[in-house]
Amino acid sequence: MPCFRCGARQTDPVRGASPWRRGVRADHQVLICPGCQAGHGWADELDRCAACDSAALVCRLGEVECRDCGHTREAVRDDLVRAGAQGGAVDRDLSAEVAAALNRVLSRGPAG
After folding, report:
1. Spatial separation of the C-alpha atoms in residues 109 and 103, rounded to whole Å
2. How confident is the model at residue 90 (pLDDT cuts 50, 70, 90)?
């Protein structure tokens, strides 16, 4: 998953804690790269907990949970509706991205 602000991709992790941060934006899990974290305003673009106003949210299994207070709510997911309206364009984009990643990892030429 790329950084939601600049599109940078994570590289293979080194031992220890990751410098990348997680957040939720429009009820979707997002990552923030170290470069964007150094800038200002990125935290203002994230969703906030309705109970405690924290930005420490995670989205999993259709729920958004606050890591600070434990408040949970159902995630509003419209990506499936959009994918259907676009004729599966979202799925095709993901498939092409996965194929390119496998080719890089397996040192194969472009998929044909």
Report:
1. 6
2. low
Q: What is the distance between the alpha carbons of residues 102 and 80, in angstroms, rounded to a whole number?
A: 25
**Residue given tokens 């673009």 in the structure block:** 45
b/e 25-46 (16+ beta carbons within 10 angstroms → b): bebbbbbbbeebeeeeebeeeb
| Residues composing the chain | 112
CB 100 within 8 A of CB 111: yes
**Residue 88 vs residue 53, higher pLDDT:** 53
Q: How far apart are CA 9 and CA 48, in angstroms?
A: 25
Tell me the whole-structure pTM to 2 decimals. 0.62
Average pLDDT over residues 39-54: 92
